[in-house]
Every structure is written in C-alpha cells, then in structure tokens.
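Example complex used in Figure S2.
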Amino acid sequence: MPTLNHFLILSGVLFSIGTAGVFLRRNLITILLSIEIMLNAVNITFVSVGRFKGTVDGQIITFFVMTVAAAEAAVGLALVIALFRHRETLSPDAFTSLKW
Amino acid sequence: MELFAFYVFAGIAVLASLGVVSSKVPMHSVMLLIVSFGALAGLYVLLDAPFTAVTQIIVYAGAIMVLFLFVVMLLNQHKEDDPEVVPASVLKPGLRAGVLLSIMLAIEVAWGLSQLGVRPFSTEPGAVSSISSVARIGTALFTTHTFAFEVTSVLILVSMVGAVVIARREP
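Predicted assembly (271 residues):
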C-alpha cells in the first residue's frame, strides 16, 4: 500500500522535470508542455492530500486546475501561433523586443 | 500489489515526462505527454479518485493535447531550430544559480518530508467511499465552491475570446 510520502515524492520529481524543461528547452511548444507537467505534479499533491485527509476538496481543486490549464493552453498556443506568424521561428530567444 | 501498481505507474509517468523534456521533435513530446497523463490517471484510480482519473483522460489527453497536436501540425516545424551555442558568460552563472536553487529545494523537501513522517492512507471503507463518490464531489462543487465554479466559467469565456483575438490574422 503506497503512503502519502510516495505520492509527494513522485509529485516533487515530476515538478522538477517540468521546471528543468521550462528552463532548458529552446522551443515554445515544449515549454508549454513542461508547464502542463508541472500542473499535473501539483494535481497529484492535491488529490493525495485530499485522500489522506478524507475530503473531496483536493479533487475539486484539481478540477479547477484542469480548467485553468485548458484556458492557459488555449491562450498560450494562440500566442505561439501569432509569434510564429511574425518571426517564422519558435525559439524564445527570437522574441526579445520587450526586454530592456 | 497496490505498491507494485504505484511503482509501475509512477515509473511510466516519470520516464514519459523525461522523454517530453528531452525529445527534439515536438510531435514526440506531445505523444509522450499523453502517455504520462494516462499513467497519472492510473495513479488517481489508486488514490480512490475515479472521477478525477476520467476527467484527466477526457480533458487533458482528449482536449488539451488535441489542441497541442493541432498547433504542432499547423506550425509544421518538425525539429527544433539548431540550438544556439549558449555563451559561457551566460552559461556559468546560470548553472551556478540552478545548482544552488536545486540544492536549496532538495533540503527544503527533505526537511518537510522528515517533519511529516510516514503517513499511510486510512483504509476504512467509509472514508474510501466518501472520497470516490461522484455525488459527493458534485454536491461540494455546487454548494461550497459555487462562486469558484461560476468564476471559472467566466475565465473560460475570457480565454476563448482572447485566443480568437490573439491568433487572428491582422487585416
């Protein structure tokens, strides 16, 4: 029987993988996918702590996180399409005009 | 038995996530992320949350990933741009900051887990059935969390309009 600690460690590992992806990759789509990995790691924490405390609130927060992830993916991908149309590249290093 | 299932699903999720981050082809990344989401759905079943598991498959693997696939195919960029060589003046401080950050995070996580101790889940049938019941989730969603639910609908509407406006071709 896995314990709460198993799930928390798994969640930490997945979150670190997602963070590393955001910082190391040079492709806007892969960066968005890494953000999805991070959101899912947090979802695991919510559901397992909710299971530990015996309430359904963890699952409800997960439900809201999923809707926020859907909204984020829609707007983020629209931005990626707009940027690609502008510069014909997906590298985040190409979009530095807002950098001072 | 459940521990074995946990390790299988956790291993699949971690390996698939590593593949997502390391693959050079965006299409492979998206497919591996779908595999990772499937393994996570299995973990939700282990946590007695079948509703969340089904939502994970339908919303994440079914809807969000299809959106990603559409964009990957639309942009038709099969490979990552040739990676620019990061200049050493940027790489060294970046590496140092990354190592420092990860050591601090590891210490913090280890401290938190040592404070927590080993916490097994309760296995009483009453506790389990009250968690996994969809009726309970629906009741809580539409009584305690009504405001958040309504705000979420506004958020979806805003993001839908925003996506259309941002991705529109300028006339």
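Residues 57-87 of chain A form the longest helix (31 residues). The mean pLDDT of chain A is 88.
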